[in-house]
Every structure is written in C-alpha cells, then in structure tokens.
C-alpha cells in the first residue's frame, strides 16, 4: 500500500476498558445535534438486563446517554418531521422506540 493510500485510512481505537458491549446492528452514525458533526450512536446492552443505555460518542468521549427500557436489537438514525434534527429508532422487545434529543418520544 502506497503512502497516498495509507493516508486515506484512520487508526481505530480498541479499548477493552471502555465498558461498551453491543452488537453490530446496534451501532449507527448520526448528526444528533444538527451541528454538522457526525457522532457514533451505540445501544449499550449492559450486563444481564441491567444498565442498558443509548450512548452518543464524539471521538472517544461520551457526549450524551439515555436509559433504554428493554434489550436493544437494532438502532437507526432517520429524519422524520424536522429535517434539521434526526430521530433515533431503537428496536427492543416487541417495540420500536423513537428518541428525539436522547429523550423517549414515541413507541410503536
């Protein structure tokens, strides 16, 4: 790989002490606050049905989090009513829960 090709890649952080346990379908990218900065949204599964959280990372720092009521199975970011701020959909149990600004908004 040439130096120009290597410059296109970024080194990923691997931290066993970060305390995040999730699955690949419980991770998405989103411009959560409409500031043009894409953040990593992770549904942290927790440990044995405790401490399940929706976490937002900017780089390696947690910039927001919210409790999740049930075991998450998938997460998606989408635009619904207001185009400037996305909503986060979390599939958990037999429901899809919609979060706006990391607050529970609607349950389907």
UniProtKB/TrEMBL annotation:
One of its GO terms (biological process) is non-motile cilium assembly. One of its GO terms (molecular function) is patched binding. GO terms for cellular component: axoneme; BBSome; centrosome. Residues 9-107 form the Bardet-Biedl syndrome 1 N-terminal domain. This is Bardet-Biedl syndrome 1 N-terminal domain-containing protein.
